Amino acid sequence: MFPKKCLKLEVLSPNKKCAFRLQMNKVTRFLAIERCYEGNASLTPQRLLILDTIGQQKKPISAYHLKDILHGRGKPLNIATIYRILEFWCRLRIIHRLAALNKYVCCADPKEKHTHVINCCQKCETTYESCNEEMGIDLERGPELLGFIFDSKNHLEIPVICLSCS
Hints:
There is one protein chain. This protein is an alpha+beta fold. The chain has one domain: Arc Repressor Mutant, subunit A (Orthogonal Bundle). 41% of the residues lie in helices and 14% in strands. It has six helices and five strands; from the N terminus they run H-H-H-H-E-E-E-E-H-H-E. The N terminus is likely disordered.
């Protein structure tokens, strides 16, 4: 039903969800550290805190909701700092900013070389991430026919209604 490389946490049983999320966080965390090292970027405790907190979420999260969660855990950060850190992780392609929702989600496969495609349910905000090749979307030829070039550094968002909400 789903391409094997795609992330769809709701498909997994509750026990597998937790194990998969822990494994995913370890991979994402390792890649984040590696990309910081390669890019000669500082890896601060606040940056790791934000990354870990986003990685624990089941759905996309706003900067203000993130601020509330951190405050509740006794680790208050001001909103400007949170936005700077979110932008930092977006630049490294470890998290994605969902422009339609103004929320953030961990990248399902930071190693993926193709353009990431994020399907986001407009009702329940369940996200399903794959790549343009798996979805059969030609992001080179289509825009070229219109006189454009697709910026492959970005991801593509597709607003959908999931089967559970339809």
